[in-house]
Amino acid sequence: MAGDPLIELRDVNKYFGDLHVLQDIDLTVGKGEVVVVIGPSGSGKSTLCRAINRLETVQSGTILLDGQPLPAEGKELARLRAEVGMVFQSFNLFAHKTVLQNLSLGQVKVRGRKKDDADRRSRELLERVGVADQADKYPAQLSGGQQQRVAIARALAMEPKAMLFDEPTSALDPEMINEVLEVMRQLARDGMTMIVVTHEMGFARSAANRVVFMADGRIVEDRSPDEFFTHPSSERARDFLSKILHH
Ligand SMILES: Nc1ncnc2c1ncn2[C@@H]1O[C@H](COP(=O)(O)OP(=O)(O)O)[C@@H](O)[C@H]1O
Ligand SMILES: [Mg+2]
Question: Which residues approach ligand 1 with their CB closer than 6 A?
């Protein structure tokens, strides 16, 4: 069962100009819960993630993290970004820093850790995601799957309360997808609260507590993976599933 609410969106609306990209979004994610978000391209999945991390502002509604409204700016905002780790499709590592430096930097700058302590924690996390032997290399010297695992470790280094993943395996060669999904599965088993935008339906079935289906800026379905995959209630979801499962 899910714990207390950790991420709450209430009646959230966002526009890009005339385009109503998030429409009356209500979503609650409990502590330790894993919510997979799926839906057609352009349905607002990335905007939803970015709004939760306040990379995008919203025009109306409330977004709470652990009961607190999102801070608007300054130090509080930097801390919020650390509390909600985000992993994107593109790995977003600092190209001119080593893997170890990539992990330690934010710990020192945002969390105020001593460099030695940060480095020690960085090495533990690199071990956990299976790339300990890559610590002194630069991102470009790693495979895509390794880089994405480093990006996950870097987010974890900030000790986030929740992790958001926006299509973390979409840019990867097929043989590397599983090594990243396995790290995410382990994270889920360890009790991390996660929102995962993905087209990996195997992951959704095996790791998600709930599947949220979005279309045209709205949440159309929000239910257990088993219910969603066997009895999608909306025409939109049935149509979407038939396209991705039988192509
Ligand atoms: N910065 C932006 N400016 C204007 N329109 C945007 C911007 N970002 C996204 N959009 C539009 O908002 C809609 C939702 O986009 P997005 O959240 O990226 O969808 P998804 O991740 O589901 O593919 C799309 O129509 C997209 O073109
Ligand atoms: Mg997207």
Answer: 16, 19, 21, 39, 41-47
Domain spanning 5-93+161-245: CATH superfamily = P-loop containing nucleotide triphosphate hydrolases (3.40.50.300)
Tell me whether strands 19-30 and 193-197 are parallel, antiparallel or unpaired: unpaired
- Nearest bound ligand to the CA of residue 23: 1
145 CA → ligand 1 middle, Å: 26
Q: Quote the ligand 2 centre to 169 CA distance (angstroms).
A: 12
Average pLDDT over residues 86-109: 94
Beta strand extents in 53-206 (DSSP E only):
60-65, 68-69, 84-87, 162-166, 193-197
Nearest CA to ligand 1 atom 9: 47
pTM: 0.95
pLDDT tens sequence across 187-236: 999 999 999 999 999 999 999 999 999 999 999 999 999 999 999 999 99
Taking phi over 0 as left and psi of -120 to 50 as alpha, with beta for the rest, 149 belongs to alpha
| Closest Cα to atom 10 of ligand 1 | 16
Ligand 1, atom nearest to 39 Cα: 22
User: Residue 40: nearest ligand to its CA?
Assistant: 1
DSSP string, 115-142: HHHHHHHHHHHHHHTT-GGGTTS-GGGS
Nearest residue by C-alpha to atom 18 in ligand 1: 46
Task: Compute the mean pLDDT over every residue in the chain, rounded to the nearest whole number.
Answer: 93
28-80 per-position pLDDT tens digit: 999 999 999 999 999 999 999 999 988 899 999 999 999 988 877 777 777 77
